[in-house]
């Protein structure tokens, strides 16, 4: 059995997948475990090896999952006769098996540095990626700017999801630092996977607008409450480096104290970010088209007119683009692009 455990650990090490080594360091009869017994607990809660009976195994798995979240080793004492006073550095849990007994175990997590998923291409996103490794976070940046198919009809949320590359069992913290470019899409994309934290770099006033946009897109109230906005501790930070530091300080606090519940990553109902509730009514229907926009377009070729609502958008910056008949069109939001995709001729005939 020990050979099988070592081989499994080798394979997990090779793939850098998180797991926890468990070793029995003390036992008191009639515990069925013996000193030196070992087990391995994977990120999905599977226990391989032997460290005691059924009652002990369940407690070990639960404690191992906590170790994977905090990244810290742990001493676990399972006993039917707990000491009157707690023991520093030891987690004490009651032995519930009828046979009673005592077993003490050492839990050592491996490959547990959490992933910091950074969405955006802003200076704050760059600063986070630079500082994260110093605080034992593995940075992974994604953005619409990095998408290899930015001219396709795929939704921004889907484009971001394709870049995630998060392995099963990894603990993930996410920060959206898109700075107003595609905030709601980024939040929905990040929320498609299990998270320990989801922060949005924004102002309190801007967050209210984004929150309303997310709610309109079908985001649950639980997701809206889970998002930390503005992200970071209030330390009076100024500039990208200090703001990134304030966010990392908050992440360390959440990680070490295990504060708050995580997000389960279940799909958000109707989560096409920016999609308008009533598709029959063009968004921004009251927007006035600026007659001078054509002249501006000639002077600045990146400025284009949304063929659905008439708003002027920057083609080089908007994430909402669609190529049709060899021409790339830009849109102010996902709703306009979706309506255009359904019937391009309808909108181009009025252009």
Automatic annotation (TrEMBL):
SMART domains: TRASH. GO terms for molecular function: oxidoreductase activity. It comes from the Bacteria. Residues 258-305 are annotated as: Disordered. Residues 306-344 form the TRASH domain. InterPro entries: Ferritin-like_SF, MoCofactor_Util/Proc, RNR-like, TRASH_dom, XdhC_CoxI, XdhC_Rossmann_dom, YHS_dom. PANTHER family: ALDEHYDE OXIDOREDUCTASE MOLYBDENUM COFACTOR ASSEMBLY PROTEIN (PTHR30388), XANTHINE DEHYDROGENASE SUBUNIT A-RELATED (PTHR30388:SF6). This is Xanthine dehydrogenase accessory factor. It comes from Alicyclobacillus macrosporangiidus.
